[in-house]
Write a structure and sequence with these properties.
There is one protein chain. The protein is of the alpha/beta class. The protein has two domains: about 260 residues, Aldehyde Dehydrogenase, Chain A, domain 1, CATH 3.40.605.10; about 190 residues, Aldehyde Dehydrogenase, Chain A, domain 2, CATH 3.40.309.10. Strands 14-17-18-13-12-20-21 form a seven-stranded mixed beta sheet, with helices on both faces. A six-stranded mixed beta sheet has the order 9-8-7-10-11-23, sandwiched between helices. The longest helix has 23 residues. The protein starts with 7 loop residues before the first helix and ends with a strand. The structure holds nicotinamide-adenine-dinucleotide. The site of nicotinamide-adenine-dinucleotide has 31 residues, from helix 8 and helix 9.
Length: about 500
């Protein structure tokens, strides 16, 4: 069913009337923190506070983890018939769809993402992922090992117990679903810790899950800052696995906290500086330019697998860049509550300043910055235009570090081998792409590129059926697909002598 388009005034009215969830969702209901701490949920499109939210401190975390552990021990979720759990999770997915408008609006208000995208992409993808794992739930078979006539050897997957999902602000609902879906389907108790910048829609997920019939305490949502709530979960002895998406710096910290506590499993989806290689034989320069622009400017460039490094053959660099530049105007930032807006607000003024500092450094070093202007809107907020960096040193910070903004770093090369060497010369390895008409070059490059996903003549094609994650310092383990179950299960061998 098509929903009627709303005007920015309609959305503003809905935003004014919306109720914010401000407490943790614990043991089947909203619950106030026992310790009275709060932090602010802000609107980056205005710079104003939306609402104070309770912060779940270390002692509160102890309470929530104890509840999660007790429900796991009691088997209220894991021991239920798979078909029943499937039905509950399918209702959870339907509930997300039923609350789509409120979820999309909360996410837009808190992150500055355009409402057209939170409605069309983030909420449906979140529901779709929960549905996909629900549908897997009663179709997963365990294994038998060859035991000959002497033994029956079963290899079973068992849930780990309590999983803490610690997620970032750039795709809050989608990334939460990548963790919640398989972790719940595997039978675990799950605690979601959203980023402090994107809490509100995630809190609502707790309520929707409870309405669907996920038992109290099996799915809880704890708001709070990373070094408080996140750290308490990371160092907790009763948490058996951390499922993290966020920066490489915090990912490394979580490995340390695991080692300092109970050696919990740590799955990490971290940063990236993904390379797009365009070879001199690429005939589809317009299609490549569309994909390059979308890959770096969609979501304000705040995308882990953004194609932030364009490695282009010198022979076609100007022809390609002319086309990419022509697409900058399509990404003019505007009011996130206007359905026509394609580029919204940056997550915060301080993050925008961090991005601008990279541009200033490039100018200082004699590089060329095309675009990237900060926009002052009457409503306030953090808005900047897309940027392209040319004539930069491949060893410079702007060429190597994750800027996490709408900034395309261009590096020119001679030939495919040099392009792949440049692409691999990175601490990261999340994604890469190669544009070429030559089939053998495509396969050769795809094989050599050290990245979790390699696209050929495309970018950012995604499906929940494909694993997603990184080589090197882009992470450990994979989200999405059946491989995600590795993060949330232990393998048990039962050897029966016959
Ligand atoms: P971040 O690392 O600052 O925060 C991520 C989460 O970790 C938040 O919930 C935060 O509260 C929590 N956290 C922060 N410090 C913590 C600590 N000491 N202990 C425990 N938890 C802590 O990242 P961000 O700024 O929210 O998101 C941007 C980053 O996320 C970028 O680097 C981006 O590449 C990465 N990211 C990666 C993927 C992927 O799939 N590989 C996807 C999206 C984003």
């Amino acid at each position: 069913m098509m929903t009627a388009r709303k005007t920015p005034a309609d959305w503003q009215a809905a935003a004014t009337a919306i109720e914010y969830p401000t407490q943790a969702f614990v043991d089947g209901d909203y619950r106030a923190s026992a310790h009275g701490a709060t932090f602010n949920a802000d609107n980056p499109a205005t710079g104003k506070v939306l609402t104070p939210v309770d912060e779940w401190t270390a002692a509160d975390v102890d309470d929530a983890v104890a509840i999660a552990a007790a429900r796991f021990e009691a088997g209220v979720w894991a021991d239920r018939d798979p078909a029943e759990r499937k039905a509950v999770m399918l209702r959870f997915a339907d509930g997300i769809r039923a609350h789509a408008e409120r979820l999309a609006l909360l996410e837009t208000l808190e992150t500055g993402k355009p409402i057209s995208q939170t409605q069309a992409v983030d909420v449906p993808a979140c529901a779709g992922t929960i549905q996909w794992y629900a549908e897997c739930l009663d179709k997963l078979y365990d294994e038998m090992a060859p035991g000959g006539h002497e033994a029956v050897i079963a290899i079973r997957r068992e849930p780990v117990g309590t999983v803490a999902a610690i997620v970032p602000w750039n795709y809050p609902l989608i990334i939460a679903s990548w963790k919640i879906g398989p972790a719940l389907a595997a039978g675990n108790s799950v605690i979601l810790k959203p980023a402090e910048e994107s809490t509100l829609a995630s809190l609502l997920l707790g309520e929707i899950a409870a309405e669907a019939g996920i038992p109290a305490g099996v799915f809880q949502v704890l708001p709070g800052r990373g070094h408080v709530t996140g750290d308490a979960l990371a160092g907790h002895d009763q948490v058996q696995a951390i499922a993290f998406t966020g920066s490489t710096e915090v990912g490394k910290r979580l490995l340390v906290r695991s080692g300092e506590s109970n050696m919990k499993k740590v799955g990490l989806e971290c940063g990236g500086k993904s390379a797009q290689i365009v070879t001199r034989d690429c005939e589809q320069l317009d299609a490549a330019a569309d994909a390059i622009a979308g890959s770096i400017w969609y979501n304000q460039g705040e995308t882990c697998h953004a194609g932030s490094r364009l490695i282009v053959d010198r022979a076609i660099a100007d022809a390609l860049l002319e086309r990419v530049e022509a697409r900058m105007a399509q990404y003019e930032p505007g009011n996130p509550l206007d359905e026509a807006t394609v580029m919204g607000a940056m997550i915060s003024a301080s993050h925008q300043q961090r991005v601008q500092d990279y541009l200033a450094e490039v100018r200082r070093d004699g590089g060329q910055v095309i675009g990237g202007e900060v926009l002052a809107r009457p409503e306030g907020g953090a808005f900047m235009r897309p940027a392209i960096l040319r004539r930069i040193d491949p060893a410079s910070r702007a060429a190597r570090e994750e800027i996490f903004g709408p900034v395309l770093a261009v590096i020119e090369c001679d030939g495919l081998d040099e392009a792949v060497d440049l692409a691999n010369d990175s601490d990261y390895g999340l994604a890469a792409a190669v544009w070429t008409e030559r089939l053998s070059d495509a396969h050769r490059a795809a094989r050599r590129l050290r990245a979790g996903t390699v696209w050929v003549n495309s970018y950012d094609m995604a499906s929940v059926a494909t694993p997603f994650g990184g080589y090197k310092q882009s992470g450990i383990g994979r989200d999405r697909s059946l491989h995600a179950f590795d993060k949330y299960t232990e393998l048990k061998t039962t050897w029966v002598a016959v």
